[in-house]
Amino acid sequence: MVNISECLWQYGGISGIFEVSNQSIQTMYKNYSDTKKRSLTKAPGTLKWLEKINEIMKDSLYNPDINNLKMAKALDISERELFRKVKMTTGLSPQKYFRKYRLNKVMELMKKGEFSTVKESGIAIGYSNTSYFIHQFEKEFGMKPLQVLKEFGWR
């Protein structure tokens, strides 16, 4: 049996009890949320679903007009569902996942020597603004695209 006066003394009064209780609830929710994310990530259809997204991204790699709405329509789901699924499986928003996919793809192609200029490589993955492409590339990889082109001797 719990002695109320001992609890009050141990936790510094009613406010201390509420604080401990609130922390416990937050911890329980975080643990539940993490467990739910892990179970969804390991769900049997998750890999197939992610492969389907990657296939659509591969087909529309050069399309600068691809966005969440078009991606959701291609997958026959709502934008909200797209956001939820991508966020659960990758930890990124769809926009960030698509950007990361494109930048990784252009890095791969640059290493193979597919491009001779930075502008060409940016346009190839749907960036019409070269300076924005350079900014995003540098943010993702910590180096400018020109450095990659020079490193692999294609410039």
- Determine the mean pLDDT: 77
For this structure, the quaternary state is single chain
- The dominant shape is elongated
Residues in β-strands, percent: under 5%
Biggest sheet features: none
The percentage helix is: over 70%
Judged by helices, strands and strand pairing, the structural class is mainly alpha
The stretches of 5 or more residues where confidence is low (pLDDT under 50) are: 35-41
Query: Over the alpha carbons, how many angstroms does the gyration radius reach?
Result: 24 Å
Name the descriptors.
74% helix, 155 residues, Arc Repressor Mutant, subunit A, mainly alpha
Molecular structure report:
By secondary structure, this protein is mainly alpha-helical. Among the domains are: 14-42; 96-151, Homeodomain-like (Arc Repressor Mutant, subunit A, Orthogonal Bundle), CATH 1.10.10.60. 74% of the residues lie in helices and 0% in strands. It contains nine helices and no strands. It has helices spanning 4-11, 14-41, 46-59, 68-75, 79-90, 94-112, 118-124, 130-141, 145-151. Helix 4 crosses helix 5 (79-90). 14% of the residues are buried. Mean pLDDT is 77; it is low at 35-41.
